[in-house]
């Protein structure tokens, strides 16, 4: 009977003990490390309090004072495409913005139905006026012929008849006179009685009266009947002529109206009279007209499209009222586009400010135009950042604006010297919101403490004191007291 030899047994509690020892050792090391760090941390923290001041060395240099504003590229010479349809119309079709067109290309098509109806009605009125004119011309011609007819016909005929009657009356008078003379001789011989002689004498008197009547009739025809008839005929002619003039004016008026309606019909199809790129007026910074779409109702003289002249480009910006007095026409400017920087100059400054309101942040700005030279790739509507150089100072001492604190004594700064930090009162000149020109109070080589509100307790105490210049603008363009308080608050937060 064999007995197997078992491997030596190890107590189970030994493995758990080793695990405990390992964990305890690691924990001890962690605690020891934290204790050591806690012991030396105050030393590091104490040394951190000893921070050397950030300084700026005063030196002669140049300073450019600029004003920076955002603007948009536009053309200084734009061909505006307007609606010329009287009373407005409805857009049936419009070309897409940004399309390159040639002269004569169709741009906009407006509704023509109402205008076509007006043309039809006006044509009827025009034809009626034409018929009236033709009738009046005929009346004038008839009146003129009537005058000629009377002078050359009726009058001569009447005059000849009267003259014939006078001739006959003269013949009759001569006969009666001969008979009366014969009766006198016969009565003297006793052949005729006195009664018969009186009868012959009465016949002579009757013939004379008849002759006088005929002559009076001729004189009346010459002096009165002729003039009367001529006056009537001339009046008829003048009336016909006046009527003709009236119908001619009416016809001209109706023709003008018809031509106007035809022109309105032609205006419904708007074509380009010059080559270029077509854009909507809303892309031009000077226009607030909404973009037109198919079906939109447009008014007369409304700008529908714009064809800018890309050979005459400019940038329009708004300059704040605090800087506009320093602007002059001809000042140089730098125009920065996406991947391009162009040189330009101020070409125009508005005399009247643009309207300010809540939509503009109540900022009062004056429109200023910056002329730039033609460059490939320039398109209207491109955004641009414009820097206008207001002034350039050479060989001047400049100090960072962050080093200046305003006090009741004026503008001050702190200089680091061998004897310690010293306060200096400054006389400042022009500024570009980053640096200011120092006219007096500092010398070349002085070490100026940057941001004294964060490191100099005297500056902190001075900043919260009231000043006499709280209403004046500082070199940075803001109220200095507010700037100091803000910087003091930021310094406290950093600590």
* Uncertain stretches: 1-22, 38-51, 469-495
Label the structural class.
alpha+beta
Q: With helices defined by DSSP (H or I, 4 residues minimum), what is the helix count?
A: 7
Q: Which geometry do the CA atoms define?
A: rod-shaped
Can you describe this structure?
Residues 1-22, 38-51 and 469-495 have low confidence and may be disordered. The longest helix has 77 residues, at 113-189. This protein has 495 residues and is an alpha+beta fold. The two termini are 88 Å apart. The strands form 5 sheets. The protein has a 6-stranded antiparallel β-barrel with strand order 2-11-14-13-12-15. Strands 7-6-4-9 form a 4-stranded antiparallel sheet. Strands 1-20 form a two-stranded antiparallel ribbon. Among the domains are: 79-109 and 268-308, Beta Barrel (OB fold (Dihydrolipoamide Acetyltransferase, E2P)), CATH 2.40.50.100; 114-260, Helix Hairpins, CATH 1.10.287; 395-494, conserved putative lor/sdh protein from methanococcus maripaludis s2 fold. The protein is rod-shaped, with a radius of gyration of 58 Å. The chain contains 7 helices and 20 strands. Helix 2 (113-189) runs antiparallel to helix 3.
Quick recap:
With 495 residues, the chain is α+β, with helices and mostly antiparallel strands. The chain is built from seven helices and 20 strands.
């Amino acid at each position: 009977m064999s007995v197997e030899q078992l491997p030596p047994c190890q107590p189970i509690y030994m493995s758990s003990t080793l695990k405990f020892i390992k964990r305890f050792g690691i924990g001890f090391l962690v605690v020891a490390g934290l204790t050591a760090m806690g012991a030396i941390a105050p030393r590091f923290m104490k040394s951190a309090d000893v921070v050397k001041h950030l300084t700026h060395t005063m030196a002669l240099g140049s300073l450019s004072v600029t004003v920076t504003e955002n603007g948009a590229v536009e053309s200084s010479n734009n061909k505006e495409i307007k609606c010329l349809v009287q009373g407005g119309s409805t857009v049936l079709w419009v070309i897409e913005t940004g399309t390159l067109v040639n002269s004569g290309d169709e741009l906009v098509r407006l509704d023509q139905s109402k205008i076509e109806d007006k043309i039809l009605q006006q044509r009827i009125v025009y034809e009626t006026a034409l018929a009236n004119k033709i009738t009046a011309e005929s009346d004038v011609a008839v009146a003129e012929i009537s005058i000629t007819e009377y002078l050359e016909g009726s009058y001569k005929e009447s005059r000849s008849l009267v003259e014939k009657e006078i001739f006959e009356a003269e013949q009759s008078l001569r006969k009666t006179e001969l008979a009366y003379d014969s009766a006198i001789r016969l009565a003297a011989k006793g052949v005729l009685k006195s009664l018969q002689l009186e009868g012959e004498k009465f016949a002579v008197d009757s013939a004379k009266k008849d002759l006088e009547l005929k002559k009076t009739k001729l004189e009346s025809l010459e002096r009165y009947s002729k003039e009367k008839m001529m006056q009537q005929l001339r009046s008829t002619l003048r009336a016909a002529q006046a009527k003709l003039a009236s119908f001619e004016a009416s016809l001209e008026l109706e023709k003008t109206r018809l031509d106007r309606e035809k022109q309105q019909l032609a205006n419904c199809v708007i074509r380009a009279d010059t080559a270029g790129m077509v854009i909507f007026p809303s892309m031009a910074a000077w226009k607030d007209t909404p973009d037109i779409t198919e079906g939109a109702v447009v008014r007369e003289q409304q700008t529908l499209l714009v064809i800018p002249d890309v050979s005459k480009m400019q940038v329009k910006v708004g300059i704040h009222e605090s800087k506009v007095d320093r602007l002059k026409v001809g000042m140089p400017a730098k125009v920065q586009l996406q991947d391009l920087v162009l040189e330009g100059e101020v070409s125009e400054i508005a005399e009247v400010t643009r309207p300010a309101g809540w939509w503009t942040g109540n900022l009062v700005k004056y429109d200023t135009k910056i002329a730039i030279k033609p460059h490939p790739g320039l398109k209207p509507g491109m955004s641009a950042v414009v820097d206008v150089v207001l002034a350039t100072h050479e060989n001047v001492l400049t100090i960072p604006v962050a080093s200046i604190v305003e006090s009741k004594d004026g503008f001050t700064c702190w200089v680091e010297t061998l004897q310690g930090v010293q306060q200096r009162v400054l006389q400042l000149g022009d500024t570009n919101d980053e640096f200011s020109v120092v006219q007096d109070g500092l010398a070349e080589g002085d070490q100026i403490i940057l941001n004294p509100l964060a490191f100099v307790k005297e500056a902190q105490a001075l900043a919260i004191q009231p000043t006499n210049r709280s209403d004046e603008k500082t070199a940075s363009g803001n109220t200095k007291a507010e700037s100091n308080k803000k910087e003091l608050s930021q310094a406290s937060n950093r600590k």
